[in-house]
């Protein structure tokens, strides 16, 4: 990846936009009786709670290492990100599907439909602002790579979650707006129910995609491919190293752990061997500041 995105800024962008949208949607849903609007209000409220959980996760991830957690708490953000994906699936997706099925069986006419249209239009504008802030940070991280490549290879789980939420929210608003307009034009409230179901299915699919990506990090994923390749290239160019046997990396939140097995050059004494390893590790961490822990297993050439 080209660089690190500012996840904290992205989360605050999303939180501010989602709270403003939630208030407007909740008022409109109560006045109009729109199922699609109710689903969108619940979705926005869930998003506000989700961003709060991500902020909590980022705070927990900064806790210092301890005897019980010698590699720190960096992976805490993965737990909270996975929890957010589950909430998006249940509170957002499952509720919207339930609401849509309920409206199909017991359709109700819309009240004050133009209010719903105005609120949804405001929501599109506010959510577009949040998406703009998110994409600005995503573009910093992905560089010249495609958006799909970034989504699959990124190690910033909180940014993946916010991107998924913003995308689902923006598309959900479009679905809700189309449902309300079709209901107004035809006078058939079934379109409102169909829009609610569409929002629910959308949220379920986005939640599943986000959960799959975060699951890999939660289990224990390596550093991104570009960083691994750069570390290997750095080690192979070191004059102290004759051959690199293996390099294992592990992503731990914003930090990376590296384990190296390499053959050292020359007939070194124990002291010289230690000094050579220390020099390699010191320069490695200076070149790649995200590496917080390194473990070196040397093998001396015959």
TrEMBL record:
Its main location: membrane. Signal peptide: none annotated. GO terms for molecular function: monoatomic cation transmembrane transporter activity. It is a multi-pass membrane protein. Keywords: Ion transport, Membrane, Transmembrane, Transmembrane helix, Transport, Zinc, Zinc transport. It is found in: Membrane. GO terms for biological process: zinc ion transport. Residues 11-218 form the Cation efflux protein transmembrane domain. The chain crosses the membrane at residues 12-31, 77-98, 110-132, 159-185, 191-212. The keyword Acetylation does not apply. GO terms for cellular component: membrane. The keyword 4Fe-4S does not apply. Coiled coil: none annotated. It comes from the Bacteria. NCBIfam families: CDF (TIGR01297). This is Cation diffusion facilitator family transporter. It comes from Dokdonella fugitiva.
